[in-house]
Amino acid sequence: MRATVRDVAARAGVSPKTVSNVINGGVVVRPSTRERVERALAELDYVPNLSARGLRNGRSGVIALTLPELGSAHSAELAQWFVELARQRGWTVQLEQTGNDPQRERDLVSRARAHLVDGLVLNPVSLSASVLATTEGLPPTVVIGEVEPEHVDQVHVDSRAAAEEVTTWLLDRGHRRIAIVGAASAGAATATSELRERGHTAGLAAVGLEVDPALRVPLASWTTRSAATAFAAWLDRNELPDAVFAFTDSIAFGVLHVLAARGVRVPEQVSVVGFDDVEAAAFAIPALTTVAFDRRAFATAALDLLTRRIAERDAPPSTVVVPHRIVERASTAPR
After folding, report:
1. SS3 sequence, 129-173?
2. Phi and psi dihedrals of 276, rounded to 5?
3. Closest to 243 (Cα-Cα) out of 222, 264, 272, 263
4. Which 8-state DSSP code applies to residue 289?
5. CA–CA dist 294, 280 (Å, integer)
6. Are 61 and 50 in contact (CB under 8 A)?
7. CA 254, CA 222: separation in Å to the nearest integer?
């Protein structure tokens, strides 16, 4: 027979309510008491009965996190924080990959409407084709990323401002021919790529420079492999730039690979900047200068908004902008 909350309470010498508080979080429990309860949970191999919990409160105890792709370091690190922080709130996280396909978003919303999940954290790449283009029948939902819905809760980094700061930062260090890798390709524009390109353009304009179309390196997908292939082909047709602004760290890793393979010294000949500050950025050769933000704070803000939205379906929408900063490492130097 599966152990119950009462079994755990008896083993730990506490009330069933205390056991529930330890399992579900949200209520402070003394460390010594929590330790006894957690030991009893382990000894009895206790597994929460999510079905019974759902029957009592009308909720499943499950939320869904959907990302365009799960293969990048940024997605993996972000998902890790969501899973850990959601667990502290008594939620299980169902991970989904949309592959930039709006139909997958619609399928996920349908499941939420059927109460198979309590809420959604969505990362659509564009609003126009997204299920978020309308709020009709939308379950509790928080958007992460840079699409700009005014009618739903949202958490994002200010990509436009960050890109402008990176461009200004490079210009201040004497770089003038700055290649951007990750620009939107025909038919594959994303809100993030558009905003980062706008920020780059604004940074150039502030010092009287115009955009040179020859310095745009569009990508069909933001992967290291795609970046390496596209950047290598671009270098075959163009002279070496002063600097490269890669729109993600994964893209920057592809750029660094191509430059190293061709014997180009970084940063002596070309400076390289990324975006996201994934763990591997500090261990690249050379270590990557990048835009950093607190992923734990990002996930916390999204879960806070989702908690509120589940409890207050009619609350006005809120937007949280997570601060960013440039982390300078060895991949950049004054020209």
Report:
1. CCHHHCCCCCCCEEEECCCCCCCCEEEECCHHHHHHHHHHHHHHC
2. 125, -30
3. 272
4. B
5. 15
6. yes
7. 10
Contact between 150 and 318 under an 8 Å Cβ cutoff? The reply is no
The residue type of 202 is: A
Q: How far is CA 221 from the centre of its chain?
A: 16
Instruction: Give residue for tokens 């709130």.
Output: 89
Q: What is the pTM of this model?
A: 0.80
* β 290-293/324-327 pair status: antiparallel
Please answer whether residues 178 and 167 qualify as being in contact, where contact means their C-beta atoms are separated by less than 8 angstroms: yes
CB-CB contact of 275 with 249 (8 Å) = yes
Span 20-53, pLDDT tens digits: 888 776 567 888 998 999 899 888 888 766 555 5
pLDDT higher than 70, residue 183: yes
Cβ proximity of 244 and 181 under 8 Å: yes
Look at the chain and count its residues: 335
CA distance 124 to 101: 9
Distance, CA of 102 to CA of 122 (rounded, Å): 11
Q: Which two tokens stand for residue 44?
A: 């009895």
Q: Using CA atoms, how far apart are residues 37 and 11, in angstroms rounded to an integer?
A: 8
